[in-house]
Write a structure and sequence with these properties.
mainly alpha
Amino acid sequence: MNELIRDFIIAILFIGGLIGFISGEFILSSALFAVTAIASYIRVNNKTSNNIQLS
């Protein structure tokens, strides 16, 4: 359930970035896109490192 909540938060931030970009708030949308990119990268990196340690 914890991963589902993280996915929803990342999706909401990404959609907020798209809406900000469309409305012309480029600084806000850039920040939101950066946060979603970092959060996604950390999540993927943690999954791969956990799989490597188990095997």
